[in-house]
């Protein structure tokens, strides 16, 4: 049965800044240098909010006849949608949350790509320029709120989790909401939606009127993790590295729920940064949490971290099993410590300027068969570089699992090969097998998982 579609002319939710002729033409441009394909892909993902899929390529192919066009108006512009998924509408009217997200996509794509690559202070090959660019994108999206005390908890975890894990993440969110803490996630389903949904109830009970549910995504992943409708502040960062930096610059603490390779990538990114000597005294609460049946999962993660990065890395987080209230109290106390530190150092509450991020974590990694095979996966290097290279390996697996470009590469040339020190790769292989066994690579009910990677013996 063919899914029903609808044609519609959609007005902006709120106000949209006037676009220049150059910006409009780039959005219409279907050539390699244009933005049409990128905009269409992100718009289609937003329109599929609530649909369980984690395959960008399949989503695009299923809606090959979908089109989005800009219609200039005397007082701004509208979007003409052709063959849009009908489930994005109620009685012919687009859901308000989806309409907000659709114009957030337009705002961020225009802004990110209208800044010249060589603009002073915003160069994308310069560490300070990258951080400055992230700041500007977040400020343009009105995410940065001066004067607001630290209250933003970043929640990471898998999009492919079972119902009990989802309910647990929702209860943790509820406890956070009861303590007037706000939520930032990757904006998708599963452990990204649960904490937000729980927090809405906690905020309602405490009559919190300004609760925040921030979703940070990027074009390569948005189709696999379409924004859930609770997100009230959606931001599309240019790539995964800038998305990860936006999490740690804006968030004041992190909670990690069970997940797969994407979650492992986030953990390694965070620990690699916190291990930098310049960040030794910087308060940043991190909690790994789950139900009793997740205890073995976190023990596996903990052992992998200790083997790869050492015991110092393990000292950067606390594991709390089956105690949502304790998780929330730990975060609330952490917020107080962050506030005290930022005030003493005269650093902003809304953007963590003092956090030192090594350029190896900032420069975009393009997963290809050559770049994956060339990763330096051995322990004869500083711990933060081990974390950086492992992060890239997980990023490549994520690309092969759910990103359109990665899926195509694996289809054409076979799985990505991962090579290096057996002492590092044996635990990595065991953990990946466990992710597959626990159905953490793909959404439940989707086709059987075909590995996008192959671990090979010998150095790269």
From TrEMBL:
Residues annotated as domain Pyrimidine/purine nucleotide 5'-monophosphate nucleosidase N-terminal: 9-112
Catalytic activity, as annotated: AMP + H2O = D-ribose 5-phosphate + adenine
E.C. designation(s): 3.2.2.4
MF annotations from Gene Ontology: AMP nucleosidase activity
Cleavable signal peptide: none
InterPro entries: LOG_fam, LOG_family_nucleotidases, PpnN, PpnN-like_sf, PpnN_C, PpnN_N
SUPFAM superfamilies: MCP/YpsA-like
Membrane-crossing segments per the record: none
Protein name stated in the entry: AMP nucleosidase
């Amino acid at each position: 049965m063919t899914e029903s579609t609808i044609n519609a002319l959609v007005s902006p939710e709120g106000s949209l800044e006037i676009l220049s002729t150059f910006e409009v033409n780039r959005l219409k441009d279907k050539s390699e240098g244009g933005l049409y394909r990128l905009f269409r892909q992100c718009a289609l993902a937003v329109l599929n909010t609530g649909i369980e899929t984690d395959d960008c390529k399949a989503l695009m192919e299923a809606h090959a006849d979908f089109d989005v066009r800009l219609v200039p108006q005397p007082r701004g512009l509208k979007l003409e949608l052709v063959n849009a998924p009908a489930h994005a509408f109620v009685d012919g009217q687009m859901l308000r949350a989806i309409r907000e997200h659709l114009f957030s996509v337009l705002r961020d794509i225009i802004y990110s790509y209208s800044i010249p690559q060589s603009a002073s202070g915003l160069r994308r090959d310069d560490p300070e320029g990258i951080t400055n660019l992230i700041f500007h994108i977040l400020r343009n999206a009105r995410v940065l709120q001066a004067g607001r005390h630290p209250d933003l908890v970043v929640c990471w975890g898998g999009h492919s989790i079972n119902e009990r894990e989802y309910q647990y993440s929702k209860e943790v969110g509820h406890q956070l909401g009861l303590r007037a803490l706000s939520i930032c996630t990757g904006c998708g389903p599963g452990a990204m939606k649960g904490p937000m949904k729980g927090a809405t109830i906690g905020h309602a009970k405490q009559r919190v009127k300004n609760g925040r549910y921030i979703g940070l995504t990027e074009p390569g992943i948005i189709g696999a993790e379409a924004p859930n409708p609770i997100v009230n502040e959606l931001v599309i960062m240019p790539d995964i590295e800038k998305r990860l930096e936006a999490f740690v610059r804006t968030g004041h603490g992190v909670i990690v729920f069970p997940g797969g390779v994407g979650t492992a990538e986030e953990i390694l990114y965070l620990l690699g940064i916190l291990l930098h000597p310049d960040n030794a005294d910087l308060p940043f609460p991190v909690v790994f949490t789950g139900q009793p049946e997740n205890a073995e999962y976190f023990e596996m993660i903990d052992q992998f971290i200790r083997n790869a990065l050492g015991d110092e890395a393990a000292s950067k987080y606390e594991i709390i099993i089956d105690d949502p209230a304790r998780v929330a109290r730990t975060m609330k106390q952490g917020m107080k410590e962050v506030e005290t530190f930022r005030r003493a150092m005269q650093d902003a509450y809304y953007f963590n300027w003092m956090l030192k991020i090594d350029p190896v974590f900032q420069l975009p990694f393009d997963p290809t068969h050559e770049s994956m095979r060339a990763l330096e996966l051995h322990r004869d290097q500083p711990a933060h570089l081990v974390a950086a290279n492992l992060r890239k390996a997980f990023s490549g697996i994520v690309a092969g699992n759910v990103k359109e470009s990665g899926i195509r590469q694996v289809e054409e040339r076979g799985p990505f090969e991962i090579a290096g020190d057996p002492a590092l790769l044996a635990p990595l292989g065991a953990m990946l097998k466990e992710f597959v066994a626990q159905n953490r690579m793909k959404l439940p009910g989707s086709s059987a998982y075909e590995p996008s990677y192959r671990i090979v013996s010998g150095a790269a």
